[in-house]
Design brief:
It comes from Promicromonospora soli. By secondary structure, the chain is an alpha/beta fold. It contains four helices and nine strands, in the order βαβαββββαβαββ.
């Protein structure tokens, strides 16, 4: 199945592009082959919550882009492949939409395409007041749960 016409990714270097949280949801809902990959840390999944895609009858893939201590996850591509992520479309999600750019680029370079980055991530970058939850998946009203993966 192709990407729905109303999902126009913002152009990006090295991957299919940036999409909004709502566009990510729409893509996941429209294409049975589409996969959501949450690249945040295990601590973030447990403390902040995770996307809930059960209504779409698909489970997100959880693979840390950066591990404890800020070390890159050298097994990232192997973890994706072990989870069955070998082609696209793939939607990468992090906390604010920054780490997921690197994940989308690496996946694309490895032939896992099209790969997209979710703008604003799960809860957005901190606002002027230093507080998150002003943008992102959660604020867009998309399904999520506090239950850790």
């Amino acid at each position: 199945m192709s990407v729905p016409a109303h999902i126009e990714a913002r152009p990006a270097d090295g991957y299919a592009g940036d999409i909004t949280p709502q566009q990510a949801w729409d893509l996941l809902a429209a294409d049975p082959a589409a996969t959501l990959v949450d690249v945040r840390t295990e601590g973030e999944w447990r403390a902040i919550g995770v996307p809930d895609t059960t209504s779409l009858e698909k489970e997100p893939v959880f693979s840390e882009w950066v591990q404890a201590g800020g070390r890159p996850n050298t097994q990232f591509l192997e973890e994706l492949k072990a989870a069955g992520v070998t082609g696209g479309p793939v939607v990468f999600l992090c906390r604010s939409g920054q780490r997921s750019i690197g994940a989308a680029r690496l996946a694309t370079a490895a032939g896992i395409a099209p790969s997209y980055n979710v703008l604003e991530g799960f809860e957005g970058a901190p606002g002027a007041d230093g507080v998150r939850d002003q943008k992102g998946w959660k604020v867009a009203g998309l399904p999520w749960t506090e239950d850790a993966k």
